[in-house]
Write a structure and sequence with these properties.
Oligomer: single chain
Shape: globular
Strand order of the largest sheet: 1-2
Number of strands: 2
Number of domains: 2
Radius of gyration: 20 Å
Structural class: mainly alpha
Strand content: under 5%
Helix content: 55-70%
Distance between the termini: 46 Å
């Protein structure tokens, strides 16, 4: 899933080491438990290096909070599977109602329509941990968000999606369909299908179009591609609007552009450098 996620290419890394790329198979969703274990292992390794400055990059709030707040999710994968079986996606409201009964405070922070977040929250509360923390994280966190404004964000999202289609997004989805039988999965299980592709905006809309038309993704007509792209654009924009509601819950310091965000990172590094010199 390179094109449709705008995954960074080696030529753009500028000799900065990148971790946790290409660690999962799109045949299935990556469990939160697995992500937290992988990310913590990297952070623990970097914590031993006084010159290391980890930058956690991502837009999924529950994953960021899981690292920042050191959630204990070990041993919950089987519980998550059980919860998904007991509360399929069509019963997301019932799952959120259970979350409200167990923890009104947690339920207030998780939108009832965010099915995956609701299930993960239930697993965290019902799992072997204490439902809150796994201990202290190895770093103090400063959360920065680049936010040039709603109109600018929505315009950029539209440009990115158009660029992805031009760069071969449909060929990428076609290759995934060849291997994972995405159209068949969608017809049989809908959003409860195991592949993460069918849960990802910018991918699933083209699979839906292929399923509805009865032709492979690669054979969609220009009009069908245009309609699927418009649907994907609408879904991505609406998701970005929801993101704006939970950014404050992460304690985000919003920067109007990349350069301001970079300056914020540089400020944190200067503070850290001065603190290190004082300790020495």
């Amino acid at each position: 899933m390179d094109v449709g996620t705008s995954k960074i290419r080696p030529a753009d890394m500028r000799d900065i080491e990148h971790r946790l790329l290409d660690i999962a198979d799109p045949a299935r969703k990556l469990p939160l438990e697995t992500y937290l274990a992988e990310a913590r292992a990297v952070l623990d390794e970097l914590a031993a290096d006084p010159d290391a400055v980890p930058i956690l990059v991502g837009g999924t709030g529950v994953y960021v909070r899981g690292i920042r707040d050191a959630w204990e999710m070990a041993g919950t994968s089987s519980l998550v599977r059980s919860l998904r079986s007991e509360f399929p996606r069509a019963q997301a409201a019932e799952a959120h109602a259970m979350l409200r009964r167990l923890s009104p405070e947690t339920a207030a922070r998780v939108h009832a329509n965010n099915y995956d977040a609701v299930v993960n929250a239930l697993a965290r509360l019902m799992g072997p941990g204490d439902g809150e923390r796994a201990g202290e994280a190895p770093f103090a966190f400063r959360v920065l968000g680049v936010d040039p404004g709603r109109r600018a964000v929505e315009s950029a999202l539209a440009r990115v999606l158009d660029d992805q289609v031009a760069r071969g997004l449909l060929d990428e989805i076609g290759r995934l369909d060849d291997r994972l039988h995405l159209v068949d999965q969608w017809r049989e299980r809908g959003l409860d299908a195991p592949s993460v592709v069918l849960a990802t905006h910018g991918y699933r809309e083209y699979v839906y179009a292929a399923a509805d038309s009865g032709v492979p993704v690669r054979d969609l007509s220009p009009d069908q591609i245009a309609a699927a792209t418009e649907s994907a654009r609408d879904h991505v924009v609406r998701y970005s609007q929801r993101q704006r509601t939970w950014f404050p819950k992460l304690g985000v310091t919003a920067a109007p552009g990349d350069e301001v965000a970079a300056a914020g990172v540089a400020h944190v590094l200067r503070q850290r450098s001065r603190a290190t010199r004082r300790q020495a």
